[in-house]
From TrEMBL:
GO terms for molecular function: GTP binding; GTPase activity; nickel cation binding; zinc ion binding. GO terms for biological process: protein maturation. Residues 26-35 have a biased composition (Basic and acidic residues). The keyword Nucleotide-binding applies. The lineage of its organism: Bacteria, Pseudomonadati, Thermodesulfobacteriota, Desulfuromonadia, Geobacterales. It comes from Geotalea uraniireducens (strain Rf4) (Geobacter uraniireducens). CDD domains: HypB. Residues 72-228 form the CobW/HypB/UreG nucleotide-binding domain. Belongs to the SIMIBI class G3E GTPase family. HypB/HupM subfamily. Keywords: GTP-binding, Hydrolase, Metal-binding, Nickel, Nucleotide-binding, Zinc. Residues 14-35 are annotated as: Disordered. This is Hydrogenase accessory protein HypB.
């Protein structure tokens, strides 16, 4: 058994194919006679999310006890998460003790980019998995000096769907949308924009070449998430990044 989160060796591959609830003891299985495949699917999803939420609460308690401010960066592939992190770490890395967890299905390309900034980084490859979960994060932070860590960035797998459902124990989800993706993405992927507290509208340096309507995009984001904070940035030129830093520092304190 793992001493960090209490997982057993079979946990990672457990497919819950009988729809059992696993609360650490055996009990009457309320789904034993379920034959409707849709109902069975919902039951399995509920199991997975309940387990994830439990582990996320553990992560949150750990981060809280160590005074670690954790941000979960989510977006579609290529919106600029890693580039935003590279610049943010260059600009804030000397003020705060930072660390990064890099989630990708394959390769350690992003971890190599982050390591070049001098900040400790841990790569998590999810294989076929389309999101990070709280269990992966729980193990990934194990390697960091948590007593001295102040700011933890988690770059999620590029995907605007699944990461919305998986709490990692972070303080805030930060969704990155780049102006090349079209202003309607908040309406198309409302769960993600609803789950995020902050939206970084990235690649604003490209606006002169595009028809992208910034105000329309912000209005669409606020329609699905009225309280969402929106910062317009270019992680390439650095434009707008100081406003993002100001928010980050005030939210940490
Ligand atoms: N023009 C422009 N390109 C950017 C900006 N941010 C990122 N990129 C480019 O977008 C591509 C994907 O960026 P990356 O950070 O790897 O995205 P990720 O997949 O979300 O981590 C790279 O070629 C970056 O150089 C930006 O603000 N402006
Ligand atoms: Mg990346």
């Amino acid at each position: 058994m793992c001493t960090t989160c209490g997982c057993g060796p079979d946990d990672h591959q457990h497919n819950h194919e009988h729809g059992h609830h696993h609360h650490g003891h055996h009990e009457a299985d309320p789904h034993h006679h379920v034959t409707d495949p849709a109902a069975k699917k919902i039951s399995i999803e509920t199991d997975i999310l309940a387990k994830n939420n439990r582990l996320a609460q553990g992560n949150r308690a750990l981060f809280g006890s160590k005074n670690i401010f954790a941000l979960n960066l989510v977006s579609s592939p290529g919106s600029g998460k890693t580039t935003i992190l590279e610049r943010t770490l260059k600009d804030l890395g000397e003020k705060f003790h930072c660390a990064v967890i890099e989630g990708d299905q394959q390769t350690d390309n992003d971890a190599v980019r982050i390591a070049a900034t001098g900040v400790p980084v841990k790569q998590v490859n999810t294989g076929a998995g389309c999101h990070l979960d709280a269990h992966m994060v729980c193990h990934a932070v194990d390697g960091f000096d948590l007593d001295n860590l102040e700011l933890l960035f988690i770059e999620n797998v590029g995907n605007l769907v699944c990461p919305a459902s998986f709490d990692l124990g972070e303080n805030h989800k930060v969704v990155v949308l780049s102006v090349t993706e079209g202003e309607d993405k908040p309406l198309k992927y409302p769960q993600m924009f609803h789950a995020a507290d902050v939206m970084l509208l990235n690649k604003t340096d490209l606006l002169p070449h595009l028809d992208f309507d910034v105000e329309k995009c912000k209005e669409m984001a606020r329609r699905v998430s009225p309280g969402i904070l929106i910062f317009e940035v270019s992680s390439k030129t650095g434009a707008g990044m100081s406003v993002w830093y100001d928010w980050l520092i005030s939210a940490m304190r």
